């Protein structure tokens, strides 16, 4: 719950920032000189890119949450069996061992979104965020019946 509050707070701050930057871009365009128009258009592009990125991230998180709720309802959410250091950090060898098991499960059932979801969690625990996102996106696509690349 705390993560959701943090996410929505940061998203709201970003939206306010986008509005402020966008208004500055409009003011620059209203100046009417070629230079300020060029800067104004450039300034307007930044909040558009940011808003698109925020939308994509929110959509991804909602879809991943939907899959997690489905797995929870099935009683198939992965159990946290990681060894942790006294400070609470995940032990690297423990994460690697679980990752290998999840990878083997996924190779055995490559069309099952559940194995890709669990593999994404294992990638995350192994601190490989780019691959975790790709694996989760594949799980989402499989769940939704969308074509899967690569």
Automatic annotation (TrEMBL):
Keywords: Membrane, Transmembrane, Transmembrane helix. SUPFAM superfamilies: TPR-like (SSF48452). Gene3D superfamilies: Tetratricopeptide repeat domain (1.25.40.10). The chain crosses the membrane at residues 7-29, 35-55. This is Tetratricopeptide repeat protein.
């Amino acid at each position: 719950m705390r993560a959701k509050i943090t996410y929505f707070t940061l998203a709201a701050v970003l939206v306010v920032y986008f509005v402020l930057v966008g208004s500055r871009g409009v003011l620059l365009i209203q100046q009417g000189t070629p230079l300020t128009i060029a800067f104004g258009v450039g300034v307007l592009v930044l909040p558009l890119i940011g808003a698109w990125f925020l939308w994509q991230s929110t959509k991804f998180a909602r879809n991943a949450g939907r899959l997690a709720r489905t797995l929870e309802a099935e009683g198939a959410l992965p159990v946290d069996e990681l060894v942790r250091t006294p400070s609470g950090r995940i032990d690297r060898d423990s994460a690697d061992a679980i990752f290998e098991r999840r990878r083997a499960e996924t190779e055995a059932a490559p069309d099952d979104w559940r194995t890709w979801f669990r593999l994404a969690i294992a990638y995350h625990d192994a601190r490989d965020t780019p691959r975790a996102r790709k694996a989760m996106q594949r799980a989402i696509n499989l769940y939704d019946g969308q074509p899967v690349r690569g």
